[in-house]
Each structure stands twice: as C-alpha cells, then as structure tokens.
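Re: folding output
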Amino acid sequence: MQTQNNDDGEMSEINVTPLVDVMLVLLVVFIVTAPLLTQVVRVKLPKTEQTEPAPDQHIATLSVTNTGQALLDERPVAIENLETELKVLQEKDPEISLQLQADWTAVFDSVAKILACAQRSGIGKLSFVTVQE
C-alpha cells in the first residue's frame, strides 16, 4: 500500500492569520492614539437663571421695509435724515439700545446704509431682531 502525500498542492482554504495580525496592530494603534485626540479644557461656567428684561430699558426700534424705507419707532424717516435722528436719540439717552428689524426681502444695500448711519450716530448697543420659523 502506498499513501499519497499532497504537500506540494495549493491550499484551498483562506489563511486568516495575516488578517488577524493586521487587525490587532490597528486595534493597538487606535487604543493608544484615541486618548490623545480628545483634548478637554475644564471650565467652570457660572450658573444663571433666566430673567425677564428690565421694563425701563431704553430701546429704539429701527425697521427696514422690503422697499428699503427706514422706520424709526414705526415712524418713516428718510435715510438722509436717519443719522441726525439717531444722534438726537443718543444725546437724549446715552444708554439707548437700537433693535434692527429688516424685512427678509429687503435689499442688502439699504440695510447696509442704515447700519452705517447707526454706526456713525454713536449708538453703541445694536441688536438684530429675528423670527423663528
């Protein structure tokens, strides 16, 4: 009886040992580098409570319509006269705050001109009023 030896033939199975070796090396690399990627700065933030705005705040409303017309406290004002009107308001009350409301279809050029007038008038507090959708 003769026994046949098939050592010289090709393997018909997939050798997964190199794949396992590569995966273990990648796992070790990720385990070592993951803590280095998360840099956390611990900051103790102050705790506050929500409050209502003070009723005696000095607020003026400046609106821009879709045609580019400026409205100061719902009163139409020409853009040429807006800077002097705002200076008068600022001189009367140095703590005045200006709220800007612009129509969403307003031309940006008119809004930019009105913003420039507000800056030149010397009013330091400016806020933008938006609407949630």
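--- second protein (sequence, then structure) ---
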Amino acid sequence: MDISKQFERRRRAILAYKSQFEPPEKERKSKVYLPLDELEARMNLTATAYGRMIGVKYAEGFIVKETMRVEDVVRMPVRSI
C-alpha cells in the first residue's frame, strides 16, 4: 500500500515514543533491543523497499490470509521482483 503521502507523519508518530527506546539515565540498558536510530533506519529501509516493489517512494506491505481467485496471473495489477 502506498504510504508516500503519510510517511513523514507516520515516522514522527513512531519516533514520538522514543522514551520506549532510550533507557532512563539511572539505568544502563534499555529494555528494548532496538536503539531508536536503528529503528528509524529500518523503518525507512523497509518502506523504501516495499515502495520500489510497487513503483512509489514509500509503501507498507500487508499479508492477506484469505484465498483469492485469479483468472490470469499475468494481468494482476502488481509487479514481480
């Protein structure tokens, strides 16, 4: 799904929870494994990779667990990688 228009707002919303990723000054380690800067890098990389798959700047992937009928795989409105 194309999230190019919403990407910056989504990024800011996720990063607003930085207290979840930075340990308090009294503690040595955070309870969360992923540091905030690495989280941001991974978010950008993932959104960019999904975006390239569908020809947009940023996208988010979704898993569909339901079955769907496909008459002609070649005519599906998606690109192969």
